[in-house]
Amino acid sequence: MTDNTERTTHFGFEDIPEADKAGRVRGVFTSVASRYDLMNDAMSLGIHRLWKDAMMDWLAPRRGQRLLDVAGGTGDISFRFLRRAGSGHATVLDLTAGMLEAGRHRAEAEAMSGMLDWVVGDAMALPFPDNSFDVYTISFGIRNVTRPEVALAEAFRVLRPGGRLMVLEFSQVPNPALAWAYDRYSFNLIPAMGQALAGDRDSYQYLVESIRRFPDQETFLGMIEGVGFEQARYRNLSMGIACLHSAWKI
Ligand SMILES: C[S@@+](CC[C@H](N)C(=O)[O-])C[C@H]1O[C@@H](n2cnc3c(N)ncnc32)[C@H](O)[C@@H]1O
């Protein structure tokens, strides 16, 4: 007999009981929340902004659309989406209250609070009815979810027919020379930067390890199709360091 306490999953390079993962992930993001935006710029040399803009280019937000931004953290994707759409509404859902709190401050500073809701919740059990959103995004979030296929099934459920899924995530670099250089940068520099800028080496060590454990582009495409999405496609960003997956609920 199998139950949740017996199943294991990965937390970075560690194997842990599945039931412990969400708490450990919440611990990481609670610890980094106040410095999350600063660290994103420092670690990626600002490139995460280009990737998020590429996501918006492909998504092409339209006026009045209802977005659900899961693992939305401090709201980077939702802010971009609403600015491009011109009008609409975004619900930012995240496991970590501290990340949403940082996002709420940003929304107040940018006078956008009226267009946003902030909801603490789990991607694997969304507190929304079926067919309620036009667009579902998850950016640098799904690799932290205990069972990504459950989160994808939830995305399918809450999207209306004709709705769009878009996932931005770190991925696998096919070019061996670039993969070697990227590994050196990731494992040597990122945890050290986490220590120097945020006083937190362990959270950034987890970040690097979790990227290596996430499925490659084709495998993840198959997972998206496996829950019922159609017209699933992907586009590599920066030679596969990150990747966008797009799909539709028809
Ligand atoms: C790297 S941050 C990404 C934030 C934002 N989407 C961005 O692109 O900047 C990952 C976020 O995923 C959230 N998260 C992790 N597991 C989650 C889950 N099961 N359900 C909802 N949010 C989750 C974390 O709390 C964290 O805020």
Global structural class: alpha/beta
Tell me the CATH topology: Rossmann fold
Low-pLDDT segments, ≥5 res: none
Question: Topology as H/E string?
Answer: EEHHHEHEHEEHEHHHEE
Helix content estimate = 40-55%
Name the CATH architecture: 3-Layer(aba) Sandwich
Number of domains: 1
Total E-strand runs: 9
Strand order of the largest sheet: 5-4-3-6-7-9-8
Give an overview of the whole structure:
By secondary structure, the chain is of the alpha/beta class. It has one domain: Vaccinia Virus protein VP39 (Rossmann fold), CATH 3.40.50.150. Helices cover 47% and strands 24% of the residues. It has helices at residues 18-32, 36-44, 47-59, 76-85, 97-109, 148-158, 176-198, 201-213, 217-226; strands at 8-11, 14-17, 65-70, 88-94, 116-120, 133-139, 159-170, 230-237, 242-248. It has a seven-stranded mixed sheet, sandwiched between helices. A hairpin with a 2-residue loop joins strand 1 (8-11) and strand 2. Helix 7 packs antiparallel against helix 8 (201-213). The radius of gyration is 17 Å and the shape is globular. The mean pLDDT is 94. The protein binds S-adenosylmethionine (SAM). S-adenosylmethionine binds at residues 22, 25, 29, 70-73, 76-77, 94-96, 99, 122-124, 139-141, 144-145. Keywords: Menaquinone biosynthesis, Methyltransferase, S-adenosyl-L-methionine, Transferase, Ubiquinone, Ubiquinone biosynthesis. This is Ubiquinone/menaquinone biosynthesis C-methyltransferase UbiE. InterPro entries: SAM-dependent_MTases_sf, UbiE/COQ5_MeTrFase, UbiE/COQ5_MeTrFase_CS. Belongs to the class I-like SAM-binding methyltransferase superfamily. MenG/UbiE family.
